[in-house]
Design brief:
The complex is a heterodimer. By secondary structure, chain A is mainly α. In chain A, 49% of the residues lie in helices and 9% in strands. By secondary structure, chain B is α/β, with parallel strands linked by helices. The chains are: A mainly alpha, B alpha/beta.
């Protein structure tokens, strides 16, 4: 069927034949078509930066009219992936005033090659360097392990994570183009000449960064001392409101980090509480303490194992200590790693001889019964000594964990909020584990008193934590639609269901069930007690996991003014 | 041991490995500067961009004859090394997964099913012939486009009208340029935009009317930025657009009150005697009638109609008077209007009265929309017979018949129905089959739901497109897969009449074919159309077009072929045979003051302003304006939505700009979802509360598929171009959807 034409095959073949273009490509090759210089050579400085100077972007806002060619020109001239953009263009709008008319201002933005680069400080593996001569902040792609921490410590959303490669990449001000006297891609591609490279004096940048922001709505410059200069001669009419001012979207939940944080804090909580209760009760061990410590140590290990899943290149996780001098993430990795090992020793040594293999080995090296008993006592003694040491190291590790987020400058991750949440989790889950273990270890666990104490602590910790978390809601009524307002809107909006489950799990697991246990006492019978205790611990865990997911998802990132509406992330 | 140490060191600290090499750059040669090493070309070639009418030159980077990257040509006089985001991303949409790769035919189950080209051609011929047998040849029509090369338009128009017996065919250029065409034809005697882009740089006063140049034509704005005269830039637009902000003056007039404004300015110019009497006497007709008519447009009356103050009107007129080189530029704000032809002519009148034409930096200048709107205007064989001739003229018909070697009786004696009339013909049953090429009626036509309904009533709808996923293709009986820009050769004609080459630098996917080949196959399958066999290549068609243009204002008989276009970096029309090849690459028309009317004089044309077809009222109290969203978006987004990086540059969700006062009155908060309702349909959009839009007005970008659910189907009576920018609507607030019901 159909109309058979020989032409069909001929045309299908011709369509695939690209040889025709060589007819014109040749012309170009021979130089018969000349290519004079573009219009942008005047847009870069004639000399390299002198001492106390560095390169910086200079944006003439009066010439930036929002065509966004810079974004795509950068992408094409630098061979970035299809969805990768090192530049962005946002909008400020406003107006009114005497003329009662509107105003808008588009803002092109890229890396600000800061004096105190947040990305570089945060990087745990030294994958950033600030060139001492040019001041350009470069990312070393092969050094990067893909932890994406720099995407949190940069207040301007500059480093972009590339899923295909498992690393972040960012603007390098086209260093080698500049070196060859060629303008960077964005400078080359701005039709209006709005972007230039200029030399700035470091002390000037430093002084200017003390107060204010690059443009209205941008993060405070004091965070990283950005060098970009935004320049305008317009007066009178002001455009000060970012077009995305009222926009909020849930951030990435960072699930491996959630697991790491919750489990490591549970672990530290058990060791700290065991130490404190030990002191409080005059050295007497809680019933079930060895089990609790073991559970704690093992969850710590589990958390540590989850962490690399967050990396784009987990095989290179071992580099994480390199940034210890500046990076809280390095410090977290180091202290949590040390803590994990120590805690495992503290919990494991007293139980070592419970392992048949260990006894067999001991037999082989010639230990007899009394020798074994002595070894058991020695190991228990060492273990007991290691508990407070672990607790101390763990506390430091949790401080590091918290500081990792505090230093990002995001208000939802403020010092008090983050520390109270992290140590709250430690206290809450630590007491839940201890209480649970006590119920299991002693048939009449509650009578032992210390289990009651642990449940009481659990209730207290839960009340404290839920109370502290709920304070964010009040920011819904903020007149300033700032970061905390966005977080509040997220918690009560798109994340409402999750936060409801979180609160319910917390109330049930941390207040209702422990309350029931305390009220019913041992009259409930061991099976019921154990059931209730496990349910309580389980619900508390669910609650804390969700709390941490919310911690990540409800944060409002610092950012430059953006465009209106939902912009594709793909 | 040393090796081991090195390995250990690299494991710990690695500054250069495979990941670093991903982004290495090196000199690309060919005058390109540094390029990504991965994408270093072994040759380059310049092709004209296939989006808008600016007609930028793009250097396509080739490796083994295949396009691997591109950058804007530095030595192309149009764009001087710059491109907008669409141009930079011109290659990306070619690789989209929803490319039409095989012909698709609707089967008995109602599904589009892959078929062979022979089956598709048979279906085409059977479908069209069946309709023609039952309802006559006039019952089959076509809708062409401003997006394909002129040679393909030429072949389509020739095939459809002289071969298949169709009488009616129009282009989507009806939606963008028809008003300017009609205005120029009536005023100048030919559809002849007089300017060259150098005029942007040579003016001292520039008027931009209904033109958001910074966003819609960023590379033309580049040329404005190059103007060394510190020019006064006056933007006339109800909205505070990017261009309005960049201008030195912004006249935020009431929507569709521009005819009043320009008559008011003419009134002041005449009153003050700020007229170039000498020029007018020599080259313009109709002054007396105009003077009499303009008496009525006193500043006071005009101020009332436009919402501008008398002072502003007087100042603006004085600005025109003081300017040495005044240019008037307009775009869709004028063209898409119920009285757009008269508004365009009111601007032409201002230029003529003040002698601002035919000199550097002057002119009444229509900025075109699509990459090849001008090609369509001259050679699509729809409204005009090929080459700007008249179907009604026996002399013209004989000339074209002679050149093409076609029986003169095959040439229709009447011009086509316009786009809106073809659609209306579906309603009356006069049109039963439609062939739609490279346009997306079901998205872009005004009062969209009606357009979709009408298309669904057709006995036979053929859609020829790069993508099988367009809203119109989804309604088709037969989909023919077309090769796109970059996959075929031909020429485009840009806004300044520059004919530029496009190049075949990429392989079309599957069995997609250049429209040129598709038209050739249809001709063969139809049978008996031997006169089309002489067009083996697009260049053959180009030579025929050049022959048709001989003796016309758009005479290009002096262009010998593609090699000449290539070495000339594009050539503007006219270039008659024997004319010296111009040394100056940027030429304007009417430097001798001779127009294309029979008496060689330009005409002053005017008419009483008419009220808006759908004014606001108590029920629908807000005026909806539509227009371009960002420079990263093109029309119905069939191409631009296929680029990841372009998609980062605009809101995926529809949004509506609302003035804060209206929002407060309606209880709408920023970022709320709202429903916009007109008498014809509704759309949902996010509220962007901003003073960019004036009180009582709303703005929605045209690119969202639901926008034209709202628009009111008024057309200009002379150009039949739809008026997209004035519809009465109302707003309904919704609660913010992220928040669940309480």
């Amino acid at each position: 069927m159909g109309i058979k034409l020989p032409l069909i095959q001929e045309y299908l073949q011709k369509q695939q034949d690209l040889r025709a273009v060589t007819r014109f490509a040749a012309l170009h090759d021979e130089g018969s078509v000349c290519a004079p210089n573009g219009v942008y050579e005047a847009q870069i400085p004639l000399s390299a930066p002198g001492p106390g100077q560095q390169y910086a972007f200079r944006v003439d806002l009066d010439a930036c009219t929002g065509c966004k060619a810079c974004v795509v020109g950068c992408n094409r001239l630098n061979g970035l992936d299809g969805d990768e953009a090192w530049r962005a263009v946002g909008t400020l709008h406003g107006g009114g005033g005497r003329a009662n008319r509107g105003m808008q201002q588009t803002i092109t933005t890229a890396c600000h090659h800061c004096l105190d680069p947040g990305c570089m400080k945060g990087c745990p593996v030294g994958a950033y360097e600030k060139d001492p001569k040019t001041g350009i902040v470069r990312h070393l792609d092969d050094q990067c392990i893909g932890c994406q921490y720099c995407t949190l410590t940069c207040p301007y959303e500059v480093p972009q994570y590339n899923e295909r490669l498992g690393i972040v990449r960012k603007c390098d001000m086209c260093t080698d183009r500049l070196g060859a006297g060629e303008a960077p891609a964005c400078v080359q591609s701005c039709p209006n000449g709005a972007i230039a490279i200029t030399l700035v004096d470091v002390p000037d940048v430093r002084a200017k960064a003390e107060t204010g922001a690059l443009v209205p709505g941008a993060p405070e410059s004091r965070l990283t001392a950005p060098t970009t200069i935004y320049h305008t001669k317009r007066e009178g009419e002001a455009a000060t409101l970012p077009a995305d001012y009222y926009a909020y979207t849930p951030a990435d939940p960072h699930l491996p980090l959630v697991v790491l944080l919750v489990l490591s804090q549970l672990s530290v909580g058990v060791f700290v509480l065991e130490t404190l209760l030990g002191l409080l009760l005059g050295g007497a061990t809680l019933p079930g303490a060895p089990i609790a410590l073991l559970v704690g140590a093992l969850s710590g290990m589990l958390g540590l194992m989850a962490a690399p899943l967050h990396l784009g290149r987990p095989l290179y996780a071992f580099r994480a200590f390199i940034g210890f001098r500046t990076s809280w993430m390095s410090r977290e990795a180091v202290f949590l790693g040390l803590y994990g090992g120590l805690a495992l020793a503290a919990a494991g040594l007293p139980l070592a001889l419970d392992v048949p293999l260990a006894v067999e080995l001991a037999g082989k090296v010639g230990l007899d019964r009394p020798g074994l008993d002595q070894l058991a006592r020695d190991l228990e003694g060492i273990g007991r000594m290691l508990v407070p040491a672990s607790a101390l190291l763990g506390t430091v590790a949790v401080v590091c964990s918290a500081m990792l987020y505090v230093v990002t400058g995001r208000r939802f991750w403020g010092g008090w909020t983050t520390h109270s949440r992290f140590f709250g989790t430690a206290l809450l889950l630590g007491s839940a584990v201890l209480a649970c273990a006590a119920i299991f270890a002693a048939p009449k666990g509650l009578e032992a008193g210390s289990a009651k104490l642990a449940f009481g602590l659990l209730i207290g910790a839960t009340l404290f934590k839920l109370g502290a978390e709920s304070t964010i809601i009040q920011h819904q009524d903020d007149t300033e639609r700032g970061e905390l307002w966005r977080s509040a809107e997220l918690i009560t909006g798109p994340l409402f269901n999750m936060s409801t489950v979180r609160t319910t799990a917390g109330v049930l697991g941390g207040i209702a069930l422990p309350g029931l246990l305390l009220v019913s006492g041992d009259s409930a019978g061991p099976t019921a007690l154990r059931g209730l205790a496990v349910a309580s611990l389980g619900l508390c865990l669910v609650g804390e996991f969700l709390e941490r997911v919310l911690f990540f998802m409800a944060v409002a990132p610092l950012r430059m003014p953006g465009g209106f509406g939902k912009v594709s992330r793909a | 041991m040393k090796k081991l140490l090195t390995t250990a060191k690299t494991l710990l600290l690695n500054r250069e490995g495979t990941l670093t090499r991903e982004l290495l750059r090196e000199p690309g040669g060919f005058g390109l500067g540094q390029v990504p090493s991965r994408l270093k070309p072994d040759a380059t070639t310049t092709a004209v961009c296939g989006f808008c009418s600016t007609g930028c030159g793009l250097d396509v980077h080739l490796k083994n004859g295949q396009a691997i990257n591109l950058s804007p040509s530095k030595d192309y006089s149009v764009n001087l090394g710059m491109a907008c985001p669409k141009g930079w991303e011109a290659l990306t949409p070619l690789a989209a997964p929803d490319r039409a790769t095989h012909p698709l035919l609707r089967n008995s189950a109602g599904q589009l099913e892959r078929v062979s080209w022979s089956a598709a051609l048979e279906a085409f011929v059977r479908g069209m012939r069946a309709v023609q047998a039952k309802h006559g040849p006039e019952a089959c029509a076509f809708i062409s486009t401003g997006q394909i090369p002129t040679e393909e338009m030429f072949l389509l128009g020739t095939l459809a009208k002289f071969g298949l017996g169709m009488v009616h065919g129009d282009g989507n250029t009806r939606q963008c340029m028809a008003t300017a065409v009609t205005a120029y034809k009536q005023s100048f005697g030919f559809d002849a935009p007089p300017y060259t882009y150098a005029d942007f740089e040579e003016s001292d006063v520039l008027f931009f009317v209904g033109s958001n140049l910074c966003i819609a034509h960023p590379i033309m704005w580049e040329r404005v930025c190059q103007n060394p005269n510190k020019p006064e830039i006056v933007v006339i637009d109800p909205r505070r657009t990017e261009t309005a902000v960049a201008a030195t003056r912004h006249l935020a007039l009431a929507p569709k009150s521009d005819l009043w404004l320009f008559y008011g300015l003419a009134h002041i110019l005449l009153r003050e005697g700020w007229i170039d009497r000498e020029f007018v006497a020599a080259h313009v007709s109709g002054l007396e009638e105009l003077e009499a008519a303009m008496q009525a447009y006193t500043p006071e009356r005009v101020a009332k109609e436009t919402g501008l103050s008398v002072t502003v009107l007087e100042e603006t007129a004085a600005l025109i008077h003081r300017g040495k080189r005044v240019s008037f530029w307009w775009t869709m704000g004028v063209n898409q209007s119920h009285e757009g032809v008269r508004v365009a002519q009111a601007l032409i009148n201002l230029a003529l009265l003040t002698g601002n034409i035919g000199r550097p930096g002057t002119g009444a200048n229509s900025i075109t929309g699509q990459c090849n709107a001008m090609g369509s205007r001259l050679f699509s064989n729809t409204t005009n017979l090929l080459g700007g001739h008249a179907f009604e003229s026996p002399k013209d018909r004989a000339k074209i018949a002679g050149i093409l070697g076609v029986d003169e009786r095959r040439i229709p004696r009447e011009p086509s129905l316009a786009y809106d009339q073809i659609l209306a013909g579906i309603r009356t049953g006069e049109i039963r089959a439609l062939w739609v090429i490279a346009t997306n009626t079901s998205h872009s036509w005004i009062h969209q739901s009606e357009a979709r309904e009408l298309l669904s009533q057709l006995d036979f709808l053929v859609v020829q497109d790069m993508y099988h996923s367009t809203e119109t293709a989804a309604q088709a009986h037969l989909v023919l897969p077309a090769a796109g820009w970059g996959e075929k050769e031909g020429t485009f004609i840009n806004s300044e009449r520059r004919i530029g080459l496009l190049k075949k630098v990429s392989r079309a996917p599957g069995e997609a074919l250049a429209d040129f080949y598709i038209f050739k196959l249809v001709a063969e399958a139809w049978g008996g159309l031997d006169f089309l066999r002489r067009f083996d290549t697009p260049e053959d068609a180009f030579h025929a077009m050049a022959a048709c243009s001989r003796g016309q204002p758009c005479d290009i008989s002096g262009i010998k072929g593609y090699d000449m276009l290539e070495s000339g970096r594009g050539i503007q029309w006219p270039l008659p045979e024997g004319a010296e090849v111009p040394r100056r690459s940027e030429r304007r028309l009417f430097e001798d003051g001779a127009f294309f009317t029979p008496d060689r004089k330009a005409r002053l044309i005017f008419e009483e302003p008419r009220p808006m077809p759908e004014p606001t009222d108590a029920e629908y109290p807000l005026m909806l304006l539509t227009g371009r969203g960002t420079s990263a978006q093109w029309h119905t987004q069939t191409r631009t939505a296929k680029s990841d990086v372009l998609r980062k540059l605009y809101s995926e969700e529809p949004y509506v700009e609302i003035n804060p006062e209206d929002a407060a009155r309606l209880g709408i908060a920023s970022d709320d979802w709202v429903t916009i309702e007109s008498r014809r349909g509704t759309m949902r959009a996010r509220a962007f509360i901003t003073r960019i839009v004036a009180k009582g007005q709303l703005f929605v970008p045209m690119h969202y598929a639901t926008t034209n659910q709202l628009t009111y189907p008024a057309v200009d009576p002379y150009s039949r171009q739809p008026s997209y920018k004035a519809s009465a609507v109302r707003l309904r607030a919704e609660r913010r959807t992220e928040r669940p019901p309480a």
